Amino acid sequence: MIEQLKTHWQSAGSRIRAWYDRFRRDADQQYSCKLPGNPGSLSFFLLKLFFSGIRVNEHQIEVLKRLPRDATVIYVTKHKSHFEHLFYHIRYQQQELPFPELAFDYRMLLWQPVHRLTQILYFQLSHFFRNFRFSDAYDSGCLQKDIGSGASALFSLIDDRGFYRRFVKAKKDPVQCIIRAQRASAKPIYIVPQLFFFGKKPEGTRLTLVDFLFGSATKPGQLRRLITLFNRPDKINIEISEPIDLKALLSQPDIAAMDLDQQSLHLRRYLLDQINRHRQGITGPYLKSKQELRESILTSDPLQDFMKAYGQERELSIQRVHQRANSHLSNISAKYNPAVIKVLAAIVRWVIYTMFDGESMNDDGLNRIKIVSHKGPLIFIPCHKSHIDYLILSYVMYMNNMPCPHIAAGDNLSFWPLGTLFRRGGAFFIRRTFKGAALYTKVFNAYIHKLLEEGFNVEFFIEGGRSRTGKLILPKLGLLSSLLRAYREGACNDMIFVPIYVGYDRVLEERSYLNELEGGEKNPESLTQVIKASRFLRKRFGKIYINFHEPISLQDLLSSEGLTMKGLQGEAFDSFCRNLGFRVIRAIDRVSVVTPHGIVAAVILNSDTPRLSYSRLLSGVDVYMRHLNRQNAKLSDTLVHDRNRAIRQTVDDYIQNRCIEPIEPAADGEETAEDGTHYIIADSRRFILEYYKNNCVTFFLPAAYVALAIIVRESPEFSALEIAADYAFFQILFKNDFAFDVNMPPEEAVRGNLNIFLSENILAAHPTVPEMYSISAEGLIRLRVFAAFLKTYLESYWITIKCLQQEQNRAESSDDRLKRILQTGSQMYRDREITRKESLSKVTYKNAVRFFTGRIMNESDLPDPWDFYSREIQKYMNAC
How far apart are CA 240 and CA 193, in angstroms? Predict the structure, then answer.
């Protein structure tokens, strides 16, 4: 019995000694700054529950998923926060991402598992009794070793105690430790800045009482964090900034030459700058008071010098000049108010889902914009199809954690009460023309300079006004030149232009556009119009489409062309500004979204018969869709997901709006309707169909030019060179209607479209002679389908030149001339000299007049330029 007890005692003692030895071994170099994954089931459960209301955008997570698999990930925050560290630790574990096990200069005792907490206390006490001081994770090399082995970590850039230790006591800091780990390891280390937002409101220069008591949204106190977390978790936003490859950064020659202290300082400043710029890209810059901005603008040295000279030249007192300048600035400037923007965002959201079926947007494009937003102010340049464009874009920015831009608006929109509301939403108002207003121009330029200097994003419509025809208007360069001058004067280090397509299945202003195109006067905006517009809230206008082009960095653009803004003066500056304007217009064209309304309208209007069956309509849609797919054109969601249903719904919509009329009504049943129903166009609504056709015309223009050039050839065979000559003629003729790429020679564009026609069996290549072609058996019919896109414009130009040619020496104002052309066109339509009512377009007439009055004066090599253009246009018009 005694022997058995002795044996059990010895066995128990062996197990205790083995456990104790293992405990001592596991307790070696255990620190409170390390928190393992799943820190005890209860702790882990409580933390998951605590942070469950916070959502992380999937696009943010993609930033981490794209990192190399073998990389060590180090997270960095601006301010030290246990709240943020615990969130990243728990949430990234849940999403199977690298999570921060190590936290530099953090003590995580409360959340340690009991067995590990015991090990930490044992290790520190043992070390203290042996060395009369507690062990330090930096001195022991434990942190550097763990990072080198691939453990993820987190550190904070701003910490009062941490700064004192680094700067005063000269102890090692996290950045130096990470740099040493990278030097000693072959594995790449990626530093990923993290931003935690408790609200999107930009900070002001003065703290509110709430900010004073509970901390700001940038650096909230514990109580504000908890209230926001439990009451409004949707206000908490997580942003992941662009990761930094530390290995690549340290290998840069200028940084590699630095010592460790210099490298760590450089990296700290770089990270702080990136986080601050990223934060500004979301909340916007600090909001100064209106009076502070006003004084800064009006007392700037350049404006003061100008006002003195202005007063002397006009014999005005300086006080009188100051009074005028102050009045101009009051009429121009916005009164940016985040509270109003929040209210407007709620209103716009309600409008979108009441009048429309929501919005469709390319999120990847928006994320690319976010990435480059820290380089300089963003200049948003959307197309302008409707009055709600600027509301939609500001709403998109607000809902995607970006500051709403300052928006250039015409002073016709400054009427009460909407003008006051728009100002507080970020709108600033400008005159339609600056002609003869030297002081106004100078004040406006000073205001633009200040916006860019403060870091505000700006939005303006380069077309100048809403497009009444559906296609893009050629650029107006006034505001663009003001932005470029501000950049030249040092307002910002870079300027990022963002071309944007904003389109609709149907626009709200259909009726007013129809009236204006037929020659009616534009009604001025007023409160009465707004009240009348409330009837639209009962209608559905399909979807809104928002598509972002790749951002254009002004600095990169200048560098690629070997230019400097300082060196651009006079004509060189004007040429650069003009080229940039056309570059933006072409960029918007490239990201335009093709909708079923545009495709169906094109097929209906381009038909060569007065009635069109549904089966022929589908056949025409198929031809155009194949062409669009070959160009990788952006298609609306409805066309991608279920084309036939989208076309059917669009036809029904056009019938409901009396644009087309069904004849020979079919019996019930969709199959019968598709086989037997024919449609005719309502003559009074052709302009509306033309508007939607023009929404997608840019994708068909090159093919239309080539197709029409082939059709007018008298020989059954033709060369690519012959077609290129006609192509160049069309580019010149329609230069006021369409923007073409000056960097793409006509020969290149022609070859591309000839290859498309070859692949569609529209053309056949000559068996022996290179670049010689002939039309296939059915090719001529299919070529006319593309050439028909030009019929409307050729008829408009034909009307204009006939009218101008008859009265070459007649002295009249531009308005009288336009009225005469409108009357002549209407008579020619009644006499059947032209066949399309949509050719009677006031907008196209204006473009044609501008072309002929400018071009013909310079055609010195032609004996009779009027006769030449008249014959050429008639030739092409008859061939369509």
Answer: 6
Rounded to the nearest 10 degrees, the angle between the axes of helix 570-590 and helix 478-488 is: 120
Burial of 776 (0-12, 13-18, 19+ CB in 10 A): middle
Residues 800 and 684 in one domain: no
Q: How many CA within 13 A on the CB side of residue 662?
A: 17
Domain that holds residue 619: 593-693
For 794, list phi and psi in degrees, rounded to 5. Answer: -65, -40
Q: Is the pLDDT of residue 209 over 90?
A: no
Last residue of one domain, picked from the residues 235, 255, 283: 283
Distance CA 301, CA 298 (A): 9
| Residue 673 confidence class, pLDDT cut points 50, 70, 90 | very low
The span from the CA of 63 to the CA of 46, in Å, is 28
Written as one letter, the residue type at 817 is R
- Please choose, from the candidates 71, 231, 288, 104, the residue with its C-alpha nearest in 3D space to the C-alpha of residue 178: 104
Q: In the prediction, which pLDDT does 601 show?
A: 95
**Are residue 670 and residue 711 in the same domain, yes or no?**
no
Number of CB atoms found within 10 A of residue 272's CB: 15
Which of these, 753, 460, 707, 702, lies nearest to 589 by C-alpha position?
702
Segment 151-167 mean pLDDT: 72
Dihedrals φ, ψ of 632, to 5°? 55, 40
Give 48's pLDDT tier (boundaries 50, 70, 90): confident
Q: What is the DSSP letter of 69?
A: T
Which of 738, 781, 748, 505 has its CA nearest to residue 623? Answer: 781
Q: Same domain, yes or no, for 623 and 716?
A: no
pLDDT band for position 14 (cuts 50, 70, 90): low
Q: Is 410 helix (H, G, I), strand (E, B) or coil?
A: strand
Judge if 463 and 571 occupy the same domain: yes
Specify whether the CB–CB gap between 723 and 710 falls below 8 A: yes
